[in-house]
Amino acid sequence: MNLRPESLVYELSSPGRECVSLPSCDVPSARPPAALLRDKLELPELDELSLVRHFTRLSQKNYSIDTEFYPLGSCTMKYNPKANEAAASLPGWRNAHPLAGDEFSQGSLEIIHSLQSWLCEIGGFAAGSLQPAAGAHGELSGVLIIRAYHEARGEHGRRLMLVPDSAHGTNPASCTMAGFRIKAIASDAEGGVDMAALREILSGPEASEVAGIMITNPNTLGLFDRNIEAIAAAVHAAGGLVYGDGANMNALVGILRPAEVGIDVMHFNLHKTFSTPHGGGGPGAGFVGVRSDLVDFLPGPIVAKGEGSSAAAYSLAMPARSIGRLKSFYGNFGIILRAYVYLRMLGPEGLRSVAENAVLNANYVKVLVEGTYKVKYPRRCMHEFVAQGDIAEGVHTLDIAKRLIDLGFHPPTIYFPLIVPEAIMIEPTETESKETLDEFAAALLQIAEEAKESPELLHAAPTTTPVGRLDEVAAARNPVLCYKG
Amino acid sequence: MPYIAATDNERKAMLERIGAASVEELFSVIPASARFPKLKLPLPLSEMEAMREIESLAAKNLCASTSAWFLGAGAYYHFIPAVVDALSSRGEFLTAYTPYQPEVSQGTLQAIFEYQSMASALLGVEVVNASHYDGATALAEAVLMAYNASGAATGLASGGRDKAIVCADLDPEYKDVMRSYASAFPIRLEFLDLPPEAAAIRSDDSTFCVVVPYPSFSGTLGDIAAAATSAHAAGAFLVVHTDPIMCGLLKSPGEMGADIVAAEGQALGNPMSFGGPFLGMLGSSAKLVRKMPGRLVGEAKDAQGRRGFVLTLTAREQHIRREKAVSNICSNQGLAMLRACIYLAAMGRSGMRKVAELCWSKAHYAAGLIAALPGFAVPALGSKQEFFKEFVVLTPIPAAEIADKLSRRGVVPGFPLSRYYPERTHELLVCVTEMCTKGQIELLARSLEEAAE
Asked: CB distance from A41 to chain B under 8 Å?
């Protein structure tokens, strides 16, 4: 890691420097009217080497999958194959225009069509759309589909969505954007949906307002909810639909098709389960799959394959009663392409071994650390598990996370899910070696010792990074969001 | 399997430690009737075979770099300096997560801060967030932001204002996205087929914002300053969608009075990539920042007084506020933003101006040549309407026929408007960027003339 302070790009600027050579104008020069022209533009001026060093040095201030173990729970930080990147860099993809016309875009359309068919096969869905640009965008698509379904049946009063208290924050936020009210459902002693609480709502005064339930299974504790079929049956009997949040699909690919246990609508995150890079925050790509009677509501356009004599021709079409467009064009194609390459190289057996090894790795790390770190629900886990950081007086999960940094690991997800105090959510993924898992577990055990013997090591951490803990409260109180000169 | 490290022996050792007899046993909690389905997926290919297949599929697309390319309409073919790919593809940027652990994410965080700074300067606003999915969703969220902000003073959802006036000459896909995003809210979208300054005059005490594209979908430049004055006089916000390349040369929407500025940032260092990933840019005045969706990075200090950067004002966001968040956005377009950041730093002030000047000059040269062709007309030239890099051409035969015919010959002449508006059969939207040479522009003119014969 690069520990030296790096100036801001503006601070490296010197008037008159140029980084990019551009052609001179080969047509008669035309000028906009003076009234339209801007008189100043505060952008930096750098030469090429200074620019290259600047951004290279910045990159060296990151932990990343390519450089460190990154066991962020719920984020599925698996290795991002380089073949995906090589494929996406071909000029035929980079320089393909979304409005060139179906006939001139058969390569892109075939990729989208194949991937959407494979994802339907993996999830057990009748059809799906790759338009969503991210997981939360897929959720928004999904809950808008649920709303459209009820409205098409004349049930305009169904505006209440049930969301377990262990759910990701995007679930309730997506519901708000789709015009739903939220009712949180408590977790039971196994971390699953409390069936008694669910039945009470479904037989209570609000039953006729229930639009559906949003289920993450495995849930955010990393536990598979064994009641899933009973939950779905109860919600269906009350006239609602079951939404599946696919954030944790890495545990289930090739193991279980969610539609077969009652999931009606579901999104997958291509940037989690299907190996596309997270890019420091995005871009991701979402897929939303549905059961047969919801197909017409999908966001579009989606790709259709011609029948009969034109069997080879792929074309774009809007589903009959589509909830509409949720972004321009057809999704994050460059990401869709990477996921295509990944699945093309895995095949059905390879896909199943992804989930198998993800679950094996998580259970292995859990066994290595659970004698030292409490695990609230001590069942076998799926692809991740949630431990607790209350290992010594005066030591918190945040201290453990920061100390892990000094030992060369990216911290797990912390303080989530909200229902576990001092939560440490660990998701190793299938791509990590046994040696890495052993080293990580050893680091956690070492930290537990340090917490008792020399807690100051934890409180001072991290000390091996370009900056120490930053004062986030002061930063928010007096926000500086731009370079001020 | 290249992507799984564990060997059979290691798996066995791990299972023993866990106390499980087999990997299958770990899945005993899954309903038996549905466990381990036989998936009908194609059999795996080696990397070599997969790349061969991908290359042959890529060859089925019409490719801008091997054609004379005049098609824009929302996705733009601009030059991308080599430094953008070289730096943005570094694994430390590419394979990092959202920078929730600031001490090990200073690279990403500082790059976002630099992008926020440069993008704010370019758009003429005080703050720009860390990105949206694309220009269309950025604009849709800008409308929701204006709706939320207009009620802030009264404590009501929108202060009783429920109408957004939208200039109808906006990309039809953007209009669709705006309808989808607004559908759950008690918002009326009133599309007016008027130029910005005339549409804004219609603002009244039920209007919370006026939405103006600058340039419009047909390429024309309205009077933003006049629109701002009218919108503000009625107590409404002015929301502008713009072309960030154009902002390298022309007055920015912020300078002319826009309260919220959205933009499609793809042109800043991101390839067209069949429509995504793109870059949604969203900026505003500082006083609206607490109603702004999306991630923001701010400057901070550590205990030793060293400068660093953190995600800030997170109380707006879904992972803190859940159903009360201003938006559900989580993953954004981080890498597309990084590319834009490197692009803006590489281009700098003079490069941005030069690219925009090239676009302006070449587009006006092309418009002049085409307007002189028998049977063709360029209304913007005739009516002295200003335009930047796109303009509508009236064609003597259906524009779709021309586009179809010429595309086969490697000259992609533009976007036939009949694809969005079936009745507009004889209109072609032509886009000219710095990538088009004089020779290609003259080839376009000759080809149009021949196609119409």
From this structure: yes
Residues of B in contact with A255 (CB under 8 A): 27, 30, 35-36
Distance CA B211, CA B189 (A): 10
Q: Which CATH number fits domain B84-341: 1.10.1240.10, 3.50.30.10, 3.90.550.10, 3.40.640.10?
A: 3.40.640.10
Tokens read off for B138: 């950025």
Chain A CB within 8 Å of residue B384 CB: no
Q: In CATH, what number does B64-79+348-452 get?
A: 3.90.1150.10
Using CB atoms within 10 Å of the CB of residue A308, give its burial: 0 to 12 exposed, 13 to 18 middle, 19+ buried: exposed
Pairing state between β A413-414 and A423-426: antiparallel
Residue A463 Cα distances to A79, A444, B302, angstroms? 27, 17, 11
Q: Which helix (H) or strand (E) holds B390?
A: strand B390-394
- Enumerate the β-bridge partners of residue A57: none
**Which member of B34, B324, B355 has the closest CB to residue A257?**
B34
Token pair for B397: 């035969």
CATH code, domain with A178: 3.40.640.10
Using the Cβ of B299 and the Cβ atoms of chain A, whether some distance falls under 8 Å is answered with yes
DSSP A20-89: ---PPP-S------GGGB-S--------HHHHHHHHHHHHTTB--TTTS---BTTT------HHHHHHHT
At A227-278, the pLDDT tens digits run 999 999 999 999 999 999 999 999 999 999 999 999 999 999 999 999 999 9
ipTM here: 0.97
Asked if B348 lies within 8 A of A277 by C-beta distance, the reply is no
From residue A289, how far is each of A150, A320, B137, B396 by CA, in Å?
A: 18, 16, 21, 45
**How many contacts, defined by CB atoms under 8 Å, are there between A and B?**
671
Q: Residue A108 is encoded by which pair of tokens?
A: 């892109």
Q: Judge whether A330 and A316 are in contact, CB under 8 Å.
A: yes
- Contacts of residue A205, Cβ cutoff 8 Å, sequence gap at least 6: none
Structural tokens at position B92: 């430390």
Which domain covers residue A291, as residue numbers? Answer: 85-343
Instruction: Indicate the helix (H) or strand (E) that contains A2.
Output: none
DSSP codes of every residue in B125-169: -SEE-S-BSSHHHHHHHHHHHHHHHHTTTTTSSSTT--EEEEESS
DSSP string, A148-213: HHHHHTT-TT--EEEEETTS-THHHHHHHHTT-EEEEE-B-TTSSB-HHHHHHHHTSTTGGGEEEE
Question: A286 with A385, same domain?
Answer: no
Q: Are residues A153 and A121 in the same domain?
A: yes
Answer yes or no: do A248 and A117 share one domain.
yes
| Per-residue confidence (pLDDT) for residue B321, from 0 to 100 | 84
Tokens 């949604």 identify what position? Answer: B280
Tell me, yes or no, whether A339 and A359 share the same domain. no
Express each pLDDT in B8-66 by its tens digit: 999 999 999 999 999 999 999 999 999 999 999 999 999 999 999 999 999 999 999 99
B-proximal residues of A, 430-469, CB under 8 Å: 430-434, 436, 462, 465-469
Do residue A183 and residue A303 come from a single domain?
yes
pTM of the model: 0.98
CATH number at residue A407: 3.90.1150.10
- Report the alpha-carbon angle A188-A378-A198, nearest 5: 10
Map out the domains of chain B as residue ranges: 64-79+348-452, 84-341
Return the residue matching tokens 């009973």: A230
- Chain B residue numbers touching A275 (CB-CB < 8 A): 3
Triad B312, B313, B318: Cα angle to 5°: 105
Helix then strand then coil, % of chain A, to nearest 5: 40, 15, 50
Report in angstroms the alpha-carbon separations of A352 from A361, A469, B4, B23.
14, 41, 12, 11
Q: Do A77 and A302 form a contact (C-beta atoms < 8 A)?
A: no
